């Protein structure tokens, strides 16, 4: 096991990997409930709604297989599951124009396109062509992004009245879920700074127990907890309904919706899946100390290939496109450094396939403190950005700022790349820019202008 996963070489232990894998699972387990809600809340062109129970099983199966694959093939401490944002594209951009099977067919094609880009080496070349300063900025931006996710999910930050965001739902901190989050955040910070082994995992478990206890003795609006209400399940074992697995029509969407509409959906899926995963892989690997002095990630080729395969697996299972989860940073913060942690995370997904009710135990208020703490840890990568050089500092800043402000890793990466290329060209350094980066810049320009481009052909 030590040789296969390079435990000694990466200065980790089996215990750390197990804790890290469990922490990653608990930080991303919300997707088991949230993905079915997003996909199940939409209808396809024929008016069909997907079954929540079938979507739950599909989400878990796709996540389990994909996470185990990235652990065994890529030896990376990443959790993989249905990507938020990608599932919204499937539900609200693809499904209104085609059947669910045809929409999932486009997801399979998206995965296959990314596999081709990875196997050909083009995806690795693109990642390596991005300047090191932007790679560090991606880490910082992801840290800010997952911090905002944690704060919003916990209700600590909410949409404001007269302002885009505010403190709590009323401008003040109110409600038991927010109180539970504050307790969990302070607990995990204290445990972490005191270097208690398993600090993040202990914090999540203790806070979840507190949430369950409070919810059982105090009358609380269930909706205030978010997607997961902390209550002991009535049953533990449930038989999975796998009826949606394999329900795919690979090319039917082109005939049903038209080639242009299908291509735009496919382009959006490929670009979002490509750069969301790229940013996450770079950012989490950087935080784990796996990135070399030139910003390269070990075993990047196999990782990128598996990421594409995972996208296709998600489509085949009708769970939407799978991608590397930014919440993997929570496991890295707990010590995860190898694919062994991914095997633990994947194993937990397999377990929840048969004990699905247990996935409803940990609310956002208990998992969110881990995201905030890890966001703070990832922020330390800002020290590696050469802020004195404005030609690098400005693109880095935009990369960092736009990830949380637009709720998208892809938008942040795109803004940084486009700005970097324009600044370099404007200062007479155009020849220093790799040709692939020019191509990526043009692709991002098309991505940002996709609505206007689409309008020219409609």
From TrEMBL:
<feature type="transmembrane region" description="Helical">
    <location>
        <begin position="254"/>
        <end position="275"/>
    </location>
</feature>
<feature type="transmembrane region" description="Helical">
    <location>
        <begin position="134"/>
        <end position="156"/>
    </location>
</feature>
<feature type="transmembrane region" description="Helical">
    <location>
        <begin position="100"/>
        <end position="122"/>
    </location>
</feature>
<keyword id="KW-0812">Transmembrane</keyword>
<dbReference type="Pfam" id="PF00860">
    <property type="entry name" value="Xan_ur_permease"/>
</dbReference>
<keyword id="KW-1133">Transmembrane helix</keyword>
<keyword id="KW-0472">Membrane</keyword>
<feature type="transmembrane region" description="Helical">
    <location>
        <begin position="55"/>
        <end position="80"/>
    </location>
</feature>
<dbReference type="InterPro" id="IPR006043">
    <property type="entry name" value="NCS2"/>
</dbReference>
<feature type="transmembrane region" description="Helical">
    <location>
        <begin position="20"/>
        <end position="43"/>
    </location>
</feature>
<protein>
    <submittedName>
        <fullName>AGZA family xanthine/uracil permease-like MFS transporter</fullName>
    </submittedName>
</protein>
<comment type="similarity">
    <text>Belongs to the nucleobase:cation symporter-2 (NCS2) (TC 2.A.40) family. Azg-like subfamily.</text>
</comment>
<feature type="transmembrane region" description="Helical">
    <location>
        <begin position="392"/>
        <end position="423"/>
    </location>
</feature>
<dbReference type="InterPro" id="IPR045018">
    <property type="entry name" value="Azg-like"/>
</dbReference>
<keyword id="KW-0813">Transport</keyword>
<feature type="transmembrane region" description="Helical">
    <location>
        <begin position="435"/>
        <end position="457"/>
    </location>
</feature>
<feature type="transmembrane region" description="Helical">
    <location>
        <begin position="347"/>
        <end position="372"/>
    </location>
</feature>
<feature type="transmembrane region" description="Helical">
    <location>
        <begin position="176"/>
        <end position="193"/>
    </location>
</feature>
<feature type="transmembrane region" description="Helical">
    <location>
        <begin position="200"/>
        <end position="218"/>
    </location>
</feature>
């Amino acid at each position: 096991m030590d040789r296969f996963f390079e435990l000694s070489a990466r200065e980790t232990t089996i215990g750390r990997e197990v804790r890290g894998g469990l922490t990653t699972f608990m930080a991303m387990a919300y997707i088991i409930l949230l993905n079915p809600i997003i996909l199940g809340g939409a209808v396809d062109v024929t008016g069909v709604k997907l079954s929540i129970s079938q979507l739950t099983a599909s989400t878990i199966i796709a996540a389990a297989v994909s996470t185990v694959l990235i652990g065994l093939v890529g030896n990376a401490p990443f959790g993989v599951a249905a990507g938020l944002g990608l599932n919204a594209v499937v539900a609200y951009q693809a499904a209104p124009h085609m059947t669910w099977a045809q929409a999932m067919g486009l997801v399979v094609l998206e995965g296959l396109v990314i596999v081709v880009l990875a196997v050909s080496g083009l995806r690795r070349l693109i990642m390596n062509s991005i300047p090191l300063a932007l790679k560090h900025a991606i880490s910082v931006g992801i840290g800010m992004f997952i911090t905002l996710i944690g704060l919003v999910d916990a209700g600590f930050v909410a949409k404001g009245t007269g302002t885009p965001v505010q403190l709590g739902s009323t401008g003040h901190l109110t409600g038991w879920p927010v109180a539970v989050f504050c307790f969990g955040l302070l607990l995990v910070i204290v445990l972490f700074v005191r270097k208690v082994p398993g600090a993040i995992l202990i914090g999540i478990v203790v806070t979840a127990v507190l949430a369950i206890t409070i919810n059982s003795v105090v009358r609380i609006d269930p909706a205030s907890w978010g997607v997961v209400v902390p209550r002991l399940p009535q049953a533990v074992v449930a038989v999975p309904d796998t009826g949606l697995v394999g329900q795919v029509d690979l090319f039917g969407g082109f005939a049903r919706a038209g080639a242009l509409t299908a291509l735009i959906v496919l382009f959006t899926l490929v670009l979002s899946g490509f750069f969301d995963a790229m940013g996450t892989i770079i950012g989490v690997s950087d935080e784990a100390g796996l990135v070399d002095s030139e910003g390269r990630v070990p075993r990047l080729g196999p990782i990128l290939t598996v990421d594409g395969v995972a996208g296709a697996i998600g489509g085949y299972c009708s769970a939407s496109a799978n991608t590397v989860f930014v919440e993997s940073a929570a496991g890295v913060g707990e010590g995860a450094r190898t694919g062994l942690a991914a095997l633990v995370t994947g194993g937990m997904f397999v377990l929840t396939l048969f004990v699905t009710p247990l996935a409803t135990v940990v609310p956002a208020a208990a998992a969110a403190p881990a995201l905030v703490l890890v966001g703070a840890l990832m922020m330390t990568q800002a020290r590696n950005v050469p802020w004195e050089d404005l030609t690098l500092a400005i693109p880095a800043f935009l990369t960092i700022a736009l990830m949380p402000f637009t709720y998208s890793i892809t938008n942040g990466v795109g803004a940084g790349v486009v700005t970097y290329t324009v600044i370099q060209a404007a200062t007479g350094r155009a020849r220093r820019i790799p040709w692939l980066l020019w191509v990526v810049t043009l692709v991002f320009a098309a991505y940002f202008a996709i609505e206007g481009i689409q309008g020219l052909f409609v």
